[in-house]
Structure formats: C-alpha cells, structure tokens
UniProtKB/TrEMBL annotation:
<dbReference type="GO" id="GO:0006352">
    <property type="term" value="P:DNA-templated transcription initiation"/>
</dbReference>
<dbReference type="Pfam" id="PF08281">
    <property type="entry name" value="Sigma70_r4_2"/>
</dbReference>
<feature type="domain" description="RNA polymerase sigma factor 70 region 4 type 2">
    <location>
        <begin position="115"/>
        <end position="167"/>
    </location>
</feature>
<dbReference type="Pfam" id="PF04542">
    <property type="entry name" value="Sigma70_r2"/>
</dbReference>
<feature type="domain" description="RNA polymerase sigma-70 region 2">
    <location>
        <begin position="21"/>
        <end position="79"/>
    </location>
</feature>
<dbReference type="InterPro" id="IPR013324">
    <property type="entry name" value="RNA_pol_sigma_r3/r4-like"/>
</dbReference>
<dbReference type="InterPro" id="IPR014284">
    <property type="entry name" value="RNA_pol_sigma-70_dom"/>
</dbReference>
<dbReference type="InterPro" id="IPR007627">
    <property type="entry name" value="RNA_pol_sigma70_r2"/>
</dbReference>
<dbReference type="Pfam" id="PF20239">
    <property type="entry name" value="DUF6596"/>
</dbReference>
<dbReference type="GO" id="GO:0003677">
    <property type="term" value="F:DNA binding"/>
</dbReference>
<dbReference type="InterPro" id="IPR046531">
    <property type="entry name" value="DUF6596"/>
</dbReference>
<dbReference type="InterPro" id="IPR013325">
    <property type="entry name" value="RNA_pol_sigma_r2"/>
</dbReference>
<dbReference type="InterPro" id="IPR013249">
    <property type="entry name" value="RNA_pol_sigma70_r4_t2"/>
</dbReference>
<dbReference type="GO" id="GO:0016987">
    <property type="term" value="F:sigma factor activity"/>
</dbReference>
<feature type="domain" description="DUF6596">
    <location>
        <begin position="185"/>
        <end position="285"/>
    </location>
</feature>
<protein>
    <submittedName>
        <fullName>RNA polymerase sigma factor</fullName>
    </submittedName>
</protein>
<dbReference type="InterPro" id="IPR036388">
    <property type="entry name" value="WH-like_DNA-bd_sf"/>
</dbReference>
Length: 421
C-alpha cells in the first residue's frame, strides 16, 4: 500500500471512528480535552504503523486499544495510581477483535449521547457548543468548522480550546441529565444532531459526497431521544426529517460516487420504509398540537418531495409556503436562499433570481459556495449561459468537497457548450 493511499484510508477511518473513540475515552477519563488528545495520539500511531503493517481487520478496535494504552501510560507517568487507574486497567483487554467488538457495541451508543449532552452544557456559549461538537462528533477540522461558521480559523480554534478547558474546570459530568436540566439542553442537543446529520448528508470536504455512517448515527441518536421525550414535537420533527432524507441515500450518488441532484434521482429507489417512518414521526409531531418548529417544517418540506411520484409532480407552491413559514420561525440567509429555489420552481427562475441577487449583499454568505451555485442554476435556466458558467466556476473554487467541485465544474462546462451553440 502506498503511503498516500494509506493516509487517505486512515483519514477515512478516523472520520468514521473518532466520535466513538472520543466518547469512550471521555467516559473513562472524565475529561473531553484529554480524551481528544489520546484519540489523536492513537491516530498518529496508526499513521506511522499502518502503511507498513496494513490496515487491521477492526481499525476502530485497534485505535481504542491503542488509546487506552496511552491513557494508562499517561497515568503511570503522572503517578496517578488511584481508583480510576485501577478501573481502567481492569477493564482494558489487549487487542482481540471479538472482545473489542463486544466492548464497542455495548455502551458506545450511550457514550455518544452523553458526550453530546456534555458538550451542550449551558456553561458554554451556543457557538462554543456547536463548534466543539462538530469537532468531536463529526470529526471536522478547525478550518472546516470555520468555513461553516463563516468565521476566521483562529477564532474557532480559540473557541474550541476554551470550551474544552471550561468543561474540565467546571467538572461538567459525563451524563444525560434529568428533569429541567435535560429540557434546558434539549434544543442545543437537537441542533447538534441536526448538524451531525447534515455533515453526513453533504460532506464539507474530502473525496466523498456523503458520509452515511454519520447520518445513521445521528438518526439513531434522534430515535433514542424520541423514546426518552415522547411529548416533544421538535424531537419527532427532527427524526422525521432524518428518516425521510435518509431514504434517498441509494440515489444521491451514482456507481462512480458522483453526486446525483434531487431532481435527477430515481425515486423508485427511495427507501419506502424510511419514508413511512418519517411521515409517521411528522404526524406524531403534528398531533402534539403546537405550532410546527424549524425541524418539523423542514420535515414537512422533505415530505412534499417524498410524496411526489415524480420530480415534475412536486408541489413547489406548498414547499415555497413552508419555507416562508420557516423564515419566520428561524430567519436566516440560508433559509432565504432555499426559499428562492422553491419560488423559482413554483413561479419561474426570474422570481427566484431576484431574491438571490438581494442575498449577494449578505456578508455572512460571502464564503458560502451554494449562493453562486444557486445563482448559476437560475441563470442557466434563463439562458444566460456565460454568466451561469462564471457562477458555477466561482462556486467550484469555494467548495472543499472534491465530488461537489467536479459537479460544479461539469455544470460550468455544460454552460460553456450551450453558450457556443
């Protein structure tokens, strides 16, 4: 195996396993910053050894065993021979696949939920909670998080460091809280699970358009929350959204791993079981009798797509109305951009372009690649191919995902061909 190929493989494994690894280590060490450091140490060792020895049959178990050994070495050097050391030493087995599989599959799911509630503690600011969770649960780099926040990388780096120090200094417990404390943190937990799912649904960077395992984990956590809080409509709304979105995974990429846009997907291949589950969760949210919140509204939008037999039969007028309602509940430039797309589909591209052009002056969208991408799509539909090509090329230069960049450059080339005819 070549060194570059090994490094790419290790990076892919890290993105899949890092959240579980950090969660398990946090349970043992009760310090999320130290847990991340130990996980990173295990990653460095893997980068050194795997190019020569090959990828182990169970890389997640290998990383966990290595990190546990590092934890014990650290405590030995620090002379911390207390009960924690004894407990960790007692629970640690040397690497055997069967034993490690059982350990990882046993409590790891609960550990992830505990980690989310820990990082969503009100002792941290809202932005710090989200940034830290994107780092620990989604495996995003500081640069990637900075781009999602539309902020400077140095700002995000400082925010994450301060957040980890604060959790340690305040001795925030590694647990799912009860009672009012649970309800107080629930909205941030839902936001984090939503962001976790979105990162899996459309990866910020890398060689893959989607990260299904991340979506599956977010959906599983959402289902757990729905069992714990059956009377919270937005929990059911988020679960509905994730169920319906997950139904499209088989059609979001083709056999070569290239993105397939929503309007071009083969709807016959959408997972009908997941759609039924999503529609049922949406109905549970509605039956609770409150005004639909942001997740339930987005689920209702997804339901419009799921219930349309073909792309041409999509009820875009209703989708535009739902985006209008969403913009009142959670006003944001990104919601407005999505509303522009819906309006263009319902009433024509010229109407959508008018909204998008107004968003060009929005500072927070300055580095957001989907703004020129949407604008390019609308210009192409209006036959303004030279302008559309420029917008697609601009969007391609801004995205960090290689698959998405290739898609945007292909669209730019199509516009160039159309303009020359």
């Amino acid at each position: 195996m070549s060194l570059s190929h090994a490094h790419r493989t290790v990076d892919a494994i890290w993105r899949m396993e890092s959240a579980k690894l950090i969660a398990g280590l946090t349970r043992m060490m009760r310090d999320v910053g130290l847990a991340e450091d130990l996980a990173q140490d295990a990653l460095v060792i893997a980068l050194e050894r795997w190019p020569e020895s090959g990828i182990p049959d169970n890389p997640g178990a290998w990383l966990m065993t290595t990190a546990k050994r590092r934890a014990i070495d650290l405590m030995r050097r620090s002379k911390l021979r207390d009960q924690k050391y004894a407990e960790i030493a007692h629970s640690m087995d040397l690497y055997t696949e069967e034993d490690m599989d059982q350990a990882l599959d046993g409590e790891i799911g609960d550990d992830l939920l505990r980690l989310i509630f820990m990082t969503c503690h009100p002792v941290l600011s809202r932005d710090a909670r989200v940034a830290l969770t994107l780092r620990l649960l989604c495996g995003l780099t500081t640069d990637e998080i900075a781009r999602s926040f539309l902020a400077a990388e140095s700002t995000i780096a400082q925010r994450i460091v301060r957040a980890k120090r604060t959790l340690s200094a305040e001795k925030v417990p590694f647990e799912v809280p009860a009672g009012e404390e649970f309800i107080d943190r629930l909205s941030t937990v839902l936001e984090v699970i939503y962001l976790m799912f979105n990162e899996g649904y459309s990866a910020t960077s890398g060689d893959h358009w989607i990260r299904p395992l991340l979506c599956q984990e977010a959906l599983r956590l959402g289902r757990v929350l729905a069992e714990i809080t059956p009377h919270e409509p937005e929990v059911h709304g988020l679960v509905s959204l994730m169920e319906i979105q997950s139904s499209r995974f088989k059609t979001r990429v083709n056999s070569r791993g290239e993105p397939v846009l929503l309007m071009d997907q083969n709807r016959a291949q959408w997972d009908q079981l997941l759609i039924r589950r999503g529609l049922a969760a949406l109905e549970r949210s509605r039956r609770l009798g409150r005004t639909l919140g942001p997740y339930s509204l987005q689920a209702a939008i997804s339901a419009c797509h799921a219930q349309a037999p073909t792309a041409a039969e999509t009820d875009w007028t209703r989708i535009a109305a739902l985006y209008e309602a969403l913009s009142r509940v959670t006003p944001s430039p990104i919601v407005e951009l999505n509303r522009a797309v819906a309006i263009s589909m319902a009433f024509g591209p010229a109407f959508g372009l008018q909204i998008v052009d107004e968003l060009n002056a929005e500072p927070s969208l300055k580095g957001y690649h989907l703004l020129p991408s949407v604008r390019g799509d609308l210009l192409a539909k209006l036959g303004r191919y030279d302008e559309a090509r420029t917008q697609f090329e601009r969007a391609a230069s801004m995205t960090r995902n290689e698959r998405e960049r290739a898609l945007l450059l292909n669209r730019a080339a199509d516009c160039e061909s159309a303009a020359s005819k």
